[in-house]
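Morning!

As promised:
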Amino acid sequence: MTRRSYPAIAVLVTAAFFLGLFPARGEHACEVPPEMMQVSVKLPHLAARLHAREPVNIVAIGGASTTGTAAGSPDLAYPHRLQLALAKFFPDVPITVVNKGVPRQSTRQMVGRFATDVIPEDPILVVWETGISDAVRGIEVEDFASGLQAGIDEIKNRSIDILLVDMQFSRSTATVIDFERYLTALHRVANLNEIYVFPRYEMMRYWSEQNMFNFDEVAAEERARLAARVYDCLGHKLAQAIRLAVR
Amino acid sequence: MPDPSTSRDLRLDFFRGVALIFIFIDHIPENILSYFTLEALGFFDAAEVFIFISGFTAALVYGRRLVEKGALYATAQVLRRAWQLYVAHVFLFVIFIAEVSYTATTFKNPMYNEEMRVADFLDEPHVAVVQALLLQFQPTFLDILPLYILMLVIFPVVLLIARRHPLLVLLPSVLLYVAVQVFAISVPAYPEGHVWYFNPLAWQFLFVSAALLGHARIRGQTSLPGAGVIVPAAAVIFAAAFLIKLSWTLHGVWDTFPGLLLKQLWPINKNNLSPLRLVPFYALVVLVVTYVPRDARFLQNAAARPWVLCGQQSLEIFCLGIILSALGHFALTEYGASVPMQLAVNAAGIAMMFLTAWVIAWYKTVDRMPVLRAATTSARSSDRAAQ
């Protein structure tokens, strides 16, 4: 399934939502349509580690939304929430998620950090959150895709599993930044390399359409808490996706 | 039949009009109509068409001026056109600033503040505005006019040297293009780390080669040399590129559909006008020149008229298209991007472009009418209408 089919799915799901097929807003604030939680690729190296109950190191590399400054503390950023959720799913395996977010880096700049920030951590899985800066800066889409490919090759050649996390969605920025071409490219690269992409953009768009996490309606001091809730949801959903990929 | 060397070649207007509409469509993200533009069906897109026709027409128009009124006048006229484009570019830039500043200051979500610093330039407007005036600051979609302006500025020299011998222009142009491909040379832009989206060192080849073809047309060469070999070769190249790109587009919609040679060929570089874009594009040019004669019936058709008019008012319609696609994008994100909504946005935008082109054409026609006669005839016809 590609992200191009998501709008259609989103429409169907919205219709289903109103027909009462999904729990109403508030009951399960993190819920997303099941289509967004389909994981068809595997994470074999991670699966082997988990199966052997050996310690697992995961590196989350990315931009400001990996750093999680908006929520106020690294413990509230999605990588740490991911670690907590995974710990619940795999209670007898020590799992660490290292946060290697650096704000406002392009994909190429992140690839440049792999040798110093990622490899020395000896990860078995790399969670790579990227694409926002490339779209904001208007870097050529083809160059963005080549950068992704270079990064993926570097990780895969070391027998480390990798998954991608795509962009954040926000209605107000969607009008000034064209994410679509970058999303298409990111999903295509992942597809060619048989890599899982965590559909953060579609999930956040879905939440926005459901009017969950509305930043416009809360007071300024409430916004950090709201951001923390979004990160918590994302970490939780990502943990669920990883669980599906190691089955 | 009118003399072919002086009558307007409507094919240029028509295809430029089509390219302008495609540019409008392609600039609206998640637009269903973009599955039917060149971008979805070929390795190249409307940008190549726009630059090619611009180069070709520039040689036709200013080449004639050169013969009629001398080098100095022709140069002055080219530079005047470049100035018009420059003013239009600055106008678009002001609209862009208005849009982005508005969004940036009404922003309430902390999750995007850090990364979504689209409004970076608001931190140092004194630098950003100067860089924009120097064509070094090119926000998205404001990147093709700087290329066009630069091409026109160097154009008088190209034209004058081409009159001595076309090869004196063609050879350096080819060498520069090849050098860019081999050494991946790019042209830096503002802010630091950015490059010219349309690398002028590469894209100059398309403009210059198109100009040389226009120049050859002026000198009376209208037929394609070696057509017996070139046309079939072009057909094969274009068909192959078309099928491959179509399979990629379908693959993008349905995963199960195989993307032919996707792993080997994609991504195709646009910054530097990869040969994979250039060669199929020229194949299309050969096919169009061969199979669409300049007196083709459809060009006189009423349905072709709006496209021709858009192509004739290209600068105004281009700018309008850029503004409309931003508005269309805004409308789709604000009011939902359902397919009927997308179609409505496209239809409204295209209708406005057609209407504007028609109004400008009407204005120019009236403007060109001899004053006295126009006044008397219109007075007479209104008298008649009153009776």
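The CA atoms of residues 87 and 133 of chain B lie 10 Å apart.

Hope this helps with the figure draft.
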